Amino acid sequence: MNKLVIIIAMKIKNEDDLDNYIICHKCFTLHKIIPIKDGYMASCNECGAMLYRYDTKLVDKSLALSISGLIFFILANFFPIVKIEILGHDQFITISKTIFTLIDSGFYIVGILCMFLIFIFPLMILIIDIILFTLLKLRRSKKFTKTLLVLLAHILPWSMPDIFLISILVALVKLIGYVQIDMGMAFYALIIFVLIDIYIVKKVKISELWILRENMILKRSKN
Amino acid sequence: MIDVEENRLIPCPICNAVNIDRGNKNICRRCGSAIYQHKNFITEKSWAYLITAIIAYIPANLYPMLITNKFGTHQSSTILGGVVHLWENGSYPIAMVIFFASIVVPLLKFFILFYLLISVKYPFGKDKKVDKHKLYYITEVIGPWSMIDVFVVAILTALIHLSNISIVAGTAATAFAISVFFTLLSAHAFDETLIRENIKDSK
Lengths: 223, 203
Ligand SMILES: [Zn+2]
Ligand SMILES: [Zn+2]
What we know:
Chain A is built from 7 helices and 8 strands, in the order E-E-E-E-E-H-E-E-H-H-H-H-E-H-H. By secondary structure, chain A is of the alpha+beta class. Chain A has 2 domains: 2-54, no CATH class; 57-222.
């Protein structure tokens, strides 16, 4: 595809006018933000990635989802994920047992890394999201929401509960035929938690949250 | 009124806000993060992480990943050995998942980052045809999946530890985890705005 690269000198009143523009996170094309209808989204005409959307219910929806996410995350941590029977012995794993077995057997680096990737970061994201969406809903705290959003952007790439879930399935397929496997309640809780996590982490983009913050908090303080 | 050229606009890596590129050091006008420090410094950090990751990947493949103790006999297998074993036993899908996650993904990420890091400094002739942003995006998406094998080892170790039969993690697990960790660091330290800078230079 031939693309004409035209360097346009644009005129802007001040730097804040740059808020009317967005750069595609996938292909780096510059777009001007145009108003769209409620419930619709704008996508990049170069690569098709979602740029932003206008959804008045996004804050309520995300807040409800983060709270349910936290509930399922707690359930997933308190109950056994899988139970197996091997040589007449019952064995089970929980998320914490998976981490502490590694640390107990001397694998400190792997153990601590796993603790962050599958426990601390996913939990932090849920808590940050709950506080953030509550503050957005209350239209408060310009400064703290900024801190939370920056922190969130740093943690997001390091949260891997979805990959852990797939790993459980891989591990179990390896054991099929040798042992009898029973899925525990936490396994189903973990599936629901991962689905919620995928929605609030992967579907809701950081740039959207900044736009929300602007609309909900900054514009109000001007009035 | 300010006049600004479109190709001087860069996104903040943290909050995506559009900023005007002012050269050596930019502070995002919205979130206050440093967008772009000294050009050389940024690639050097990314190089250092990448090289550490590649070095750690060598013992990750030579040492055993998983040690199975069965009634007094020890059996250890490396990453590749484990894949071959699964394949021979007919577990094709799992063999392919592990092969993809532990061998294809890390190597692909090494090559892409290596290429990107070289090409932002020394653009080759046909360079413009390669969509570097897409390449970087691929590394971001597939990167974390290389943790699968480490998690699998962790799960099996926690699940099977009887006196007669036990599964223990091997040295490779630590080496592999370090390798994945540094590859992720390298990818995040890589400054995507350098790709843009380069297109501008080559005109
Ligand atoms: Zn795009
Ligand atoms: Zn920013």
